[in-house]
Amino acid sequence: MQRDTDLQRIRHLRDLITYHNERYYQLDDPEISDSEYDRLMQELISLESRYAGEIDVSDSPTQRVGAPPLEKFESSVHLIPMLSLANAFNEDDIISFYERTRRLLETGDTIPFVVEPKLDGIAVNLTYVKGYYSIGSTRGDGYRGENVSENIRTIRSLPLKFRNSSHHAIPEKIEIRGEVIISRESFKAMNRARLRNGEPPFANPRNAAAGSLRQLDSRVTARRPLDIFCYAVGAIEGMTFTSQWEILQTLREWGFPVNPRVRRAGDIEECIRYYHEIAAEREHLPYEIDGIVIKVDSLPFQDRLGTVSRSPRWALACKFEATQATTVIERIQVQVGRTGVLTPVAIMQPVSVGGVVVSRATLHNQDEIDKKDIREGDTVIVQRAGDVIPEVVKSIPSRRTGREVPFHMPPECPVCGTPVVKLEGEAAHRCINMDCPAQIQERITHFASRGAMDIRGLGEKLVSQMLEKGLIADPGDLYYLTRDQLSGLDRMAEKSAENLLHAIEASKAPFLERFIFALGIRHVGEHIAMVISRRFGSLAAIMNASREELLAVPEVGPEVAGSILAFFGHEKNRGVINRLLAAGVHPRERQPDRGASSPLVGRSFVLTGSLKAFSRGRAKELIESRGGTVSSAVSAKTSCVVAGEAPGSKLVKAKELGITILTEEEFLQLLGAEQDHLQ
Ligand code: IVH
């Protein structure tokens, strides 16, 4: 009796844990807490151990927690070799590939392809027998790899058993190929934890994945955030496929993670479009890729094309330009930001990184420089990552000549000479002189910038010239500039002076949140500016808000509240605001808290394609001002995707996940009738 109940409970727990694994690892939308999950897992482990030897645990989720360490890895022969891919670096190479393919196939017709992201991870070969996971190995030399079965078993998103497919029988035996990766997010978290524990960080997600896969103790691997995407098959017994697309769809039906960005391309032009599209999206993807792969879809065509020098003639890897490069730091310059923070900036020999020439990169602060041991004169690796601001990854000490100079923050502000302070618990050094010319310049530039008052044509250079000539001293002065004053500036033709005056005039009715953001109050970024504008509705209400009132706003903590109070409590700041108002600058007021009744409250949006009515930035503001959120990638958590003109692969993913898709017209309707607010 007890036995029956236990066995039933085991079956139930396995299904439940498998379901929660899927929610967590594949859909990124967990339904239960980690501790609840751990409890289920513990219960299952103890029940299974009670029936050890009696019941089959090979496909149980408990098998993912790792097995006792190995002495060494056995080698494992691939039934069909794992080939490599021929490389292409530009459109011409892609077209040559296409022409050769047509020639070899002796066809004048268009050739359908499948296009996929080329994942930058570790290739693995997974053998399944009768639908059950049996061996997992690395690529090795292509013919034989290392048997890392226990390690691969710990990858939560990998099914240990096929899910039933309505279309296909389960093959007797099949080799499934894929790429083990670590997402950027997990990689960062993992390195943070390693640094905390005094362990050396990994250089990049690929190395981290490789290191994790090659652990002799799979319990260590089990704690690493490995993930996998499957994209090919090797040997198959007991069934056949006819196209690459069918392979991908079937793998997905069986429960294997298949990259959501894979796509069918009717002709080579579509492949080229995909190449550019993915190149543009590259830095926003949650994992690293180094190109795309183009594959001839039809397997009979693939057979006819065959293989030469270990690469199939039916596939092509189209690489993107590297986003890392090596260069030399000529010197380290210290910049003073608008809040007085001193930022060391590496001035480097110009180098092309991912197609963009880079000669400056932020070094963040002294701690960061010490940690990475970066010196003036060092040869370093630079990279352009997600946010396009170049970054120095590390120095290469082996290239040192002995002439490199370690860097120390200057004791005085390089601009105004005020002694620099370092506050307790902060990494930054600061110049605390509010009247430091560098701070003034940064404050005015920020005031005029795009997300703030958006005064077109008023950038850093112009602001610095105006300051030097004594035309302005604070943002308020901008609105009292005359044509004569402007035409006295370098390279300022009459037309440009005219344009600038127009731009200044046009900025006089900003949305309240932009005005608040423009003021450059410490800790008040675009988001907090929006939150408090929504809550208080007018500039006067914000200026007069008490600490209690500010603290009552969700997301406003003591630090933010203190900073807002200090800012408006400062005589000088009030003076600037009064001068702005007197010059005719009137932030648009809004009904306090209107966002709460909007249908957008609490919903998450993804924008794809271009909108006719306004820019993406403005669309984002409009959504956020109504209590919604905007994210860059589609996931199961997305409520709506707004599809403008020429939508990208986000639309495909949204369709796959069954997410509501809005046209631009529907989106405008949802935003409501406040048309004046839309522009
Ligand atoms: S197909 C014969 N598809 O690229 C074709 N490979 O240079 C077998 N890779 O070792 C590979 N993403 O590690 C294929 N979507 C993808 C891929 C991919 C990454 C890697 C794989 C392979 C290397 C070939």
> Which ions, cofactors or small ligands are bound in this entry?
2-(butylsulfanyl)adenosine
- How would you state the average pLDDT, rounded? 88
Please state the CA-atom Rg, rounded to the nearest Å.
30 Å
Helix content: 25-40%
Structural class comes to alpha+beta
Number of DSSP helical runs: 24
Report on the structure:
The structure is a single chain. The chain has 679 residues and is of the alpha+beta class. Strands 14, 15, 16, 18, 19, 21 and 22 form a seven-stranded antiparallel sheet that branches. The protein has a five-stranded mixed sheet with strand order 2-13-10-3-9. Strands 5-4-7-8 form a four-stranded antiparallel sheet. The longest helix has 25 residues, at 2-26. The radius of gyration is 30 Å and the shape is globular. Residues 83-85, 116, 118-119, 123, 139, 179, 231-232, 293, 312, 315, 317 line the site of 2-(butylsulfanyl)adenosine (IVH).
Name some characteristics of this structure.
679 residues, alpha+beta, 20% strand, seven-stranded antiparallel sheet, binds 2-(butylsulfanyl)adenosine
What's the SSE blueprint?
Elements: H1 2-26, H2 34-50, E1 75-77, E2 87-88, H3 91-105, E3 113-119, E4 122-129, E5 132-138, E6 144-146, H4 149-153, E7 173-181, H5 184-196, H6 205-213, H7 218-222, E8 227-237, H8 244-253, E9 263-265, H9 268-281, E10 289-296, H10 299-305, E11 307-308, E12 311-312, E13 315-319, E14 324-336, E15 341-353, E16 356-362, H11 366-372, E17 375-376, E18 379-384, E19 390-395, E20 405-406, E21 420-422, E22 429-431, H12 437-448, H13 460-468, H14 483-487, H15 494-506, H16 512-518, H17 526-536, H18 539-543, H19 547-551, H20 558-569, H21 571-582, E23 604-608, H22 616-625, E24 629-630, E25 640-643, H23 649-657, E26 660-662, H24 664-671
Helix pairs in contact: 1-2, 12-13, 16-17
2-(butylsulfanyl)adenosine binds at residues 83-85, 116, 118-119, 123, 139, 179, 231-232, 293, 312, 315, 317.
